[in-house]
Design a protein that fits this description.
transmembrane helix, vWA_BatA_type, single chain, 6-stranded mixed sheet, IMP dehydrogenase, VWF_A, vWFA_dom_sf
């Protein structure tokens, strides 16, 4: 829809005529005397002078109207566009400890390591988070922020895919991961503060105990959903199974306590399907917010009448110059 953002600017349209009306009578006498003096000078020198031509009034009127139209800021407003505001802020905390290398989870007809299954299923969960803000924390000996909270879920998925076991050690610092998540949420003034923490073990490293991190999470109002990954030790062929690092070593009691005391929920992921079902349940537990923001794109068009005014002045000046040259040539 075409409209003028500042229509009151059209009140300036009669300004030149008002000025001319007020100043016209005062200048009439002085202008007449100048013309008489010029004619007398012409008679004394006997020189033929071509009288100057004023700009046509209709041209000046059109130029002024175009300038005023430009000042009124013409715009074109497009059709309303509705965008969903970020429904949730979700921090993903993924375990990269050595036990995540154990190949005890079935995926596409074969047993693969736990991290590969987490990547495959979690990537699908990330791709569906349009409208949410996601962050990624990776932890093992300690925890570090791989991706801050962002709407760019494609980048979060890429950072997860590029993560490797051993990147931050081989132990499991659950307390550090939860504590870092709380810290990142505290930097936001408004947030629903949801953490999804995935691990296959128990806290064996880090500077912050899980119990201490839990207190921080409760004080900050962070809701934590914990996911225990592993096949309950049924597949004992892996190296970490022989070392006692299978799913049977998962500290489910700790994960349940963290989830329950923060208002979240604990889930057990023993295979690909159960992990995928968990993310579907999370969608139901943490539904997308229905808040929407509507705006209309605006294209500024002030340059069109302004360009027209400048073009008319240029063409008129060029025509006048050519005509004067023709008159001088005839003389």
């Amino acid at each position: 829809m075409f409209e003028f953002a500042w229509p009151w600017a059209f009140a300036l349209l009669p300004l030149p005529w008002l000025i001319a009306l007020i100043a016209g009578k005062q200048k009439h006498h002085s202008t007449l005397m100048l013309r008489i003096h010029a004619l007398a000078h012409m008679g004394m020198t006997n020189t033929k002078v071509t009288p100057s031509r004023k700009w046509p009034h209709w041209l000046l009127a059109i130029v002024w109207a175009l300038v005023v139209a430009s000042a009124a800021n013409p715009v074109f407003r497009g059709e309303p566009i509705t965008l969903s505001e970020p429904g949730r802020d979700i921090m993903l905390a993924v375990d990269l400890s050595g036990s995540m290398r154990e190949q005890d989870m079935a995926y596409q007809g074969r047993f693969v390591d736990r991290l590969s299954v987490v990547k495959a299923v979690l990537s699908e969960f990330i791709s569906q988070r349009r409208g949410d803000q996601l962050g990624l924390i990776l932890f093992a000996d300690t925890a570090f922020l791989q991706t801050p909270l962002t709407r760019d879920v494609d980048t979060v998925a890429q950072m997860l895919e590029e993560s490797q076991i051993g990147l931050v050690g081989r132990a499991t610092a659950i307390g550090d991961a939860l504590g870092l998540s709380v810290k990142r949420f505290n930097e936001k003034s408004q947030s629903n503060k949801v953490v999804i923490l995935l691990t296959d073990g128990q806290n064996t490293a880090g500077n912050l105990k899980p119990e201490e991190a839990l207190i921080l999470a409760k004080d900050a109002g962070v809701k934590v959903y914990t996911v225990g990954v592993g096949a309950d030790g049924r597949n004992q062929g892996g190296l970490f199974s022989m070392l006692g690092s299978s799913g049977a070593m998962l500290d489910e009691s700790l994960l349940k306590t963290i989830a329950e005391q923060t208002g979240g929920q604990y889930f057990r992921a023993t295979d690909t399907q159960s992990l995928a079902n968990i993310y579907k349940e999370l969608d139901a537990l943490e539904p997308q917010a229905e808040q929407e923001q509507t705006f209309r794109p605006v294209d500024a068009l002030f340059y069109l009448p302004l360009s027209g005014a400048l073009l008319m002045l240029f063409l008129a000046a060029l025509w006048r110059q050519l005509k004067q040259q023709a008159v001088v040539g005839d003389a």
